[in-house]
Amino acid sequence: MRKFLRFLITLVGAAALAAGLGTLVPRPLWPSAMAAGEGTRHILVLRNPIHTDIAIPVEDGVRRRFGFLADAGLPIDAAAARYVVFGWGGRAFYLETPTWSELKAVPVFEALTLDASVMHVDVAGAIAEPHPDVAGFDIDEVHFSALLDYIQSSFQQGSNGPMVIDNAGYSSFDRFYEANGHFNALVGCNTWTAAALRAAGLRTGWWNPLPVSLGWSMRLYN
Questions:
Q1: Which Pfam families match (predicted)?
Q2: Is the four-CA dihedral 20, 23, 27, 31 of positive or negative sign?
Q3: How confident is the model at residue 12 (pLDDT cuts 50, 70, 90)?
Q4: Quick one: which of 124, 122, 146, 148 has its CA closest to 69?
């Protein structure tokens, strides 16, 4: 029993050390050069206690690039639409946990071990800033395009393009799609968000498994 407790304490300590270093060591180590016209696009990072999403402002270029969303019934052409919100996550946890009250053991276990992944897409109206759970960043056109490339590449492609998951969604304003990659405790929704932000020319921590560590690193280095 004592050996197990020592192992558990060591494991928790190693995880805490990794998370701390992952927050404090920037990635990339040096800031990337920003293109001319810096700060022409404003993106948002949305967070809750365990998950982060990226909100992209709706405009004609975004509508054209993600036209398949309208094909699935998402109202990206609606006058009130202001943002398309993208998130990547574990299939079982995402699809089987629409609210915290519906949390189940099996999806949590799969999220901590190995699970298939999905993209969650939501259409939102105005999002208030400033807000404790909203962080805004200005990026240039070149990095905005790179961010859209990264998001687009996360959708798994079928014979007719991105594959929407039938009858999966929390409301009439969101949809789930099959995604590339696998989800686990080390490579999760927040590390996906961090990689997307690096594609946008921003700096994150080296490893950010939690929203709080990602938020700290973003404030430190941007």
A1: DUF2459
A2: negative
A3: very low
A4: 122
Residues 210 and 130 sit within 8 Å (Cβ to Cβ):
no
- Total domain count, the chain: 1
Q: Please identify which residue in the block is written with the tokens 């921590």.
A: 205
pTM: 0.87
> Between the CA of residue 180 and those of 33, 158, 162, what are the distances in Å?
29, 11, 11
The backbone torsions φ and ψ at residue 176, rounded to the nearest 5 degrees and listed phi first, read -115, 145
Using one digit for the tens of pLDDT, what is the confidence trace for 137-169?
999 999 999 999 999 999 999 999 999 999 888
DSSP string over 94-121: HHH-SSGGG--HHHHHHHHS-EEEEEEE
Find the Cα–Cα–Cα–Cα dihedral 20, 22, 26, 28, rounded to 10°. 180
Nearest Cα residue to 46 out of 86, 89, 74, 81: 86
Q: What domain range includes position 126?
A: 2-221
Cα 211 to Cα 10, 53, 152, 181, distances in angstroms: 24, 10, 22, 20
Q: How does 206-219 read in b/e, with b if 16+ C-beta sit within 10 Å?
A: bbbbbbebbbbbbe
Distance of CA 28 to CAs 45, 98, 113, 123, Å?
19, 35, 28, 31
Q: pLDDT tens-digit profile of 86-106?
A: 999 999 888 877 665 565 655
Q: In 3D, which of 11, 18, 188 has the Cα closest to residue 114? A: 188
